[in-house]
Design goal:
This protein is an alpha/beta fold. The protein has twelve helices and 22 strands. The strands form six sheets. Strands 20-21-1-22 form a four-stranded mixed beta sheet. A four-stranded mixed beta sheet has the order 4-5-3-14, covered by helices on one side. The protein is globular, with a radius of gyration of 21 Å. It starts with a strand and ends with a strand.
Length: about 400
């Protein structure tokens, strides 16, 4: 689907969708629990549906209706399974250790950029712990064997998703285990969300000087709860407000562990007068990588040069997000320069309309819709259907607060 977004400021109230990061974790923990859990305020994004389908394939019973899932934990573990992770890196990286801990011989399949996203920490460590891979740098690939405990040495700089995957799996093992980080852990707030979910389900993890200690033989207990609102999705509306819109954003928890909550502080700090003047920024984005595309849009309207740093991991997301957002903004009058691990953004005050591609990346498409509020002419976004990955009705919500959109099949 291609859409054309017309330049208009937005006004009204939105309730942000549930956090995808939190929902993944709640679904997995519930499926591993000894009993029935109920999760409310679930949103049927493609990624969350993929995680549900994978947990069903591993033996969980999941009844999903409306925004509520009733999940009966795994009782009968299959000997083998096929896990279709679609394009979800979280689903893939969280469930490789889980499937191996359960002793399920598994075929992992996926599409889009997922086959190119690295799983190196598992390839390096799991053969030392009873698991073999049939892997040729693409998908499908296969795991065989049952994971055993012990020490797992993991590079913390590739993705926190590997730490989360291990944290879900290690309580299921007979042996005690230790995750030893060989480098600084980036995106630690995501691991904090995982630790909170584990505590809710009765699993204990001890943080050590250089990683985590997990006692074996633990049992997940059922837990019922509500998925909190997603700060990474709220960021699009927060930035739109900084650019002159007037949106009341509901559904967020001030007590959230989400690292993307930092968007509130960022937007408050850069607006420096009542007329909407915006200070430039220089941000270490190692803990907030999902905010980078929309922050790049924001930087295009700041007075001076802004910098995104420590964001090299964005080159292996749904697309190379540093390249994609640079190309999109430069195509409509922006001045964005790619750095080795980030971006230099020169404020230009306004952007032209024109035509850009989403690069099949939901965050690029939504960021460009925010940019369109300050374009001087309409902006066409090709491949806009990619928002279904995380926020399927984003454009309907956008229209409900005054946005004007025309659609092509």
């Amino acid at each position: 689907m291609n859409i054309t977004v017309f330049p208009k400021k937005l006004s009204g109230q939105v309730t942000v969708p549930p956090s995808k990061s939190v929902a993944h974790r709640m679904v997995i923990a519930a499926a591993l629990s000894n009993g029935v859990s109920e999760i409310t305020n679930l949103y049927p994004s493609v990624d969350i549906l993929a995680t549900m389908d994978c947990m069903r394939a591993l033996g969980a019973k999941i009844d999903f209706d409306g925004d509520k899932a009733v999940i009966e934990g795994i009782k009968d573990i299959p000997e083998s399974a096929v896990l279709d992770c679609c394009e979800s890196g979280s689903t893939l990286r969280f469930l490789i250790p889980v499937a191996c801990a359960l002793g399920v011989d598994t075929q992992f399949i996926g599409r889009g950029r997922l086959p190119q996203r690295p799983i190196t920490p598992y390839l390096d460590e799991f053969p030392k712990h009873g698991v073999s891979f049939e892997y040729n740098n693409t998908m499908p690939f296969y795991t065989n064997g049952k994971l055993t405990g012990g020490k797992f040495y993991v590079d913390g700089g590739i993705s926190s998703q590997f730490i989360t995957g291990l944290l879900f799996a290690l309580p299921l093992l007979e042996e005690d285990s230790e995750i030893i980080l060989t480098s600084h852990l980036e995106s630690k707030p995501y691991v904090d969300i995982t630790l909170g979910t584990l505590r809710e389900h009765g699993c204990q993890v001890e943080e050590t000087e250089n990683g985590y200690f997990v006692k074996g033989g633990q049992r997940y207990m059922p837990f019922s709860g509500r998925v909190e609102g997603d700060y990474s999705q709220a960021a699009f509306f927060k930035v739109a407000n900084s650019l002159g819109s007037d949106i009341d954003i509901a559904g967020l928890s001030e007590k959230s562990f989400q690292g993307d909550k930092k968007i509130v502080e960022i937007c408050e700090k850069i607006v420096y007068n009542k007329n909407g003047g915006l200070r430039p920024f220089d941000l270490d984005c190692s803990d907030i990588p999902d905010l980078v595309p929309v922050l790049t849009v924001l930087g295009s309207f700041c007075e001076g040069k802004s910098y995104i740093r420590n964001a090299a991991r964005l080159r292996i997301k749904e697309c190379d997000r540093l390249s994609a957002i640079s190309r999109c903004l430069n195509a409509i009058g922006g001045k964005v320069t790619e750095l080795e691990d980030g971006l230099e953004i020169e404020g230009v005050g306004s952007l032209n309309g024109g035509e850009v591609d989403s690069f099949n990346d939901h965050r690029i498409a939504m960021s460009m819709a925010v940019a369109a509020t300050r374009c001087t002419s309409p902006l066409k976004i090709n491949g806009a259907e990619c928002v279904s990955k995380s926020y399927p009705d984003f454009f309907e919500v956008y229209e409900s607060i005054g946005g004007e959109i025309s659609r092509e099949p």
